[in-house]
Design a protein that fits this description.
The structure is a homodimer of 134-residue chains.
Chain A: H1 6-11, E1 12-17, E2 21-26, E3 33-38, H2 51-72, E4 76-81, E5 91-96, H3 118-132
Antiparallel strand pairs in A: 1-2, 2-3, 3-5, 4-5
Helix pairs in contact in A: 2-3
Chain lengths: 134, 134
């Protein structure tokens, strides 16, 4: 049984599942921010995945990148695997804008999240789900 | 003719070429840090690459990740495409240690680099080139 890290669980909303990865929306209304977590135990690095899993994850990441770009535009898309604090493998996808709070620095560790209101959250989840078709 | 962004050029040492990407070593002796830059014009996002180029870049990134992990170990490997400051597509690979200056935060924007000495640089480039076989 796959078990999501408790910090990822606390910081995000589970919005669905792709073939390999759970799709999480970071609960920070300042940035459209999706995290993919392959539902596999004991994976900490890309290199811990089998070749076919790496390809699937790469395809899933590209899908998320395309959807975020199409939906929100933005100045650049930050895609990152860090794992310094939460070691369970997870891949960030964050739309960045020139007027966002952390610009042009990285968002990680910059400032506390601003949670979505229930209405904002419903709307964001709905548009992302529709675009990803999950 | 492909032209490397001047900031990337200033901050790194060119250590070779893979099938698609130029391999750059960040001139910061505090972190083993390799940047891949596909030698293509007008590429800003993964989604700007053609499908086959995406696959090649993904394979080249996995090679770099494996080499860095094998050579330097570390607590985690940070792999990131940001592009907030330098928009030319470039993919970071950074070995992170629990006692490195930025731990557990991201390295980007944390502090000024500490350049390699000529001897350190020669040794690092040599071991990486040998491992990548370029």
């Amino acid at each position: 049984m796959f078990c999501l890290d408790s910090r990822l669980k606390n910081d995000t909303i589970n919005i669905g599942k792709l073939q390999l990865s759970r799709v999480l929306l970071m609960n920070d209304s300042r940035y459209p921010w999706i995290i993919l977590v392959p539902e596999l135990d004991n994976v900490y690095e890309w290199t811990d995945l089998y070749n076919e899993q790496q390809i699937t994850l790469h395809d899933e990441s590209l899908l998320i990148q395309k959807v975020l770009k199409d939906l929100y535009g933005g100045q650049s898309l930050n895609v990152g695997k860090l794992g310094n604090i939460v070691s369970q493998f997870h891949l960030h996808h964050i739309v960045r804008f020139e007027n966002d709070p952390a610009w042009p620095g990285p968002v990680w560790g910059h400032s506390s999240p601003v949670n979505y209101s229930p209405q904002e959250l419903e709307s964001r989840i709905s548009e992302i789900r529709q675009a990803i078709r999950i």
